[in-house]
Design brief:
22% helix, Jelly Rolls, alpha+beta, six-stranded antiparallel β-sheet, globular, eight-stranded antiparallel β-sheet
Amino acid sequence: MVKHSDQREGLMGIARRTTLLSAVLAGGALLAGPAQAATYDAVSDFSVTSNPGSVWSYGYSFFPAYSLILFDKPTTTATFVGWNDASYIVSGAPAAWSLLSGSAINGVLPGQMALHPGPSYRGYAILRFTAPSTADYNVVGQFYAGDSGAMSGSVVHNSNLSTPLAYFSNTTDASTFSFSALHLVAGETLDLAVGNNGDYGSGSTPVTMTITTAVPEPATLALMLGGLGVVGWVAWRRKRA
């Protein structure tokens, strides 16, 4: 016959092992997390298939009311692909485009993508990233001088042009920016906006932006796993009591 005390000890052992197993499984899920990190590259992802795409959108805005108007006219040639607005286009602008091959055109090198604002006073051409999920994102990018270096460059969060995350009054080949662990809620936006500073001529401005979901450092993971261990131990002590 099994004594009640033996039964109690057996049940406590099962509870302890179950709690520890739960902690181990949760820790394994955390360790597996970094493999799910995603990278979004505005240059290599550039496409004229659809607008908006999965995370990238292309368009323009007038001044002073900053509001993205999507381009609706794709163009494909042997040397470049791009977007315009069928109802608002003057000398090929505003535009978002990518040079595929051949020689440099208007300060844009093969393999680069560029934004060109339209003729409206202080108008903008816009590249937009829309966060696909709530996460911390690492962001690096650059505006280039391009055709003239006479355009402005702004990094805009959630269409808040009045307080951009970064601003360059005239873009140069040194107009770089980076943000670590920038927290974005699903659906929030991050724009690169190239403005014409009052004159849209010679406005082709190459841009880059690479966005990667941030991953906890090994030390952070160790702390999280340690915390899970403490939680498991406390749960076991409560069951024992």
